[in-house]
Amino acid sequence: MNVDLFDFDLPNERIALRPAAPRDTARMLVVDGAGLHDRVVSDLPDQLRAGDLLVFNDTRVIPAQLEGMRGQARIGATLHKREGPRRWRAFVRNAKRLRDGDAIDFGHGVAATANARGEDGSWALDFHGDEPVELLLERAGQMPLPPYIAGKRATDARDQDDYQTMFAREAGAVAAPTAALHFTPDLLAALAAAGVEHATLTLHVGAGTFLPVKAEDTDDHRMHAEWGRIDAATADRLNAVRARGGRVIAVGTTSLRLIESAAHEDGTIQAFEGDTSIFITPGYRFRGIDGLMTNFHLPRSTLFMLVSALMGLERMQTAYAHAIANDYRFYSYGDASLLLP
């Protein structure tokens, strides 16, 4: 499909630089067979049915943004995928100043050697020493806010909490599964009281989620692989919910993509552990999910293509035009949509 079909104009002031406080006071646009409905996230228990199940991603964002020096050259690195105990694949700023085997000093006793430049321009960084890389990143790294936020303000102490979900447990993501940022313990309790269950899976979100689609046709775009896991007990729960007539609602496109990666043609979900690079565009037949809660996405992005596949391109164009006209806040710290095909 032509990527231009997924373009739209977004006023700069619609990009949220801070999340709503409290988190569940964010607005929520419900898109279903009856049309568009303006709600807030705390209304979610009234929008779902007893027996439905929400699926959250329990990945935890690591301080994956690094600034260092290669000699006199300043080098920036954003880690995006672990390739070994001490090796991370990274997108590098000022990469033209790097050669294979160059050492980068990130300060605070943290250094790495750049090796194996990829076709996409990324580098493998092999971290020096014996300390776990996670400890090195805690010393030298920063929270990797999306470029559309980081380009407007500096990362600060508030982001250490704001950019983690209440489910964050498994360290390894370099971007938050942002739909789950809207949830609070009180909202989860209200959902439980309404008979709505929840489960978790793990998908370590990579920095590739921020990359624009540069190809003119979706067939020519290559997704970056991300590691995920659904254990057997969770897969069994999801299958049981659907077998008794409940709906599996993915919270976030990361949860959705992993469920769809684990789903068979007949809709049953199997245990899964490994990489996924699933790319969902209109024409895709969804097998494992019955709905999606997600934020509002970038023009020409793989995520806007995904929601258009779920709900139809024309309907999502209408929904996004409504959101823009009615002052909804966009992107990672913005408002939510609940999509029920």
TrEMBL record:
Similarity comment: family membership: Belongs to the QueA family.
SUPFAM superfamilies documented for this protein: QueA-like
InterPro entries named among the record's database cross-references: QueA, QueA_dom1, QueA_dom2, QueA_sf
Pfam families: Queuosine_synth (PF02547)
Top EC category: transferase
NCBIfam families: PRK00147.1 (NF001140), queA (TIGR00113)
EC number: 2.4.99.17
Lineage: Bacteria, Pseudomonadati, Pseudomonadota, Alphaproteobacteria, Sphingomonadales
Location within or outside the cell: Cytoplasm
Keywords assigned: Cytoplasm, Isomerase, Queuosine biosynthesis, S-adenosyl-L-methionine, Transferase
Molecular function, one GO term: S-adenosylmethionine:tRNA ribosyltransferase-isomerase activity
Keyword hit for S-adenosyl-L-methionine: yes
Function according to Swiss-Prot or TrEMBL: Transfers and isomerizes the ribose moiety from AdoMet to the 7-aminomethyl group of 7-deazaguanine (preQ1-tRNA) to give epoxyqueuosine (oQ-tRNA).
Entry keyword annotation includes Transmembrane: no
Gene3D superfamilies: QueA-like
Entry superkingdom: Bacteria
The name this protein goes by in its record: S-adenosylmethionine:tRNA ribosyltransferase-isomerase
Pathway, per record: tRNA modification; tRNA-queuosine biosynthesis
One of the GO biological process terms: tRNA queuosine(34) biosynthetic process
Known catalytic reactions: 7-aminomethyl-7-carbaguanosine(34) in tRNA + S-adenosyl-L-methionine = epoxyqueuosine(34) in tRNA + adenine + L-methionine + 2 H(+)
Subunit record text: Monomer.
GO cellular component labels: cytoplasm
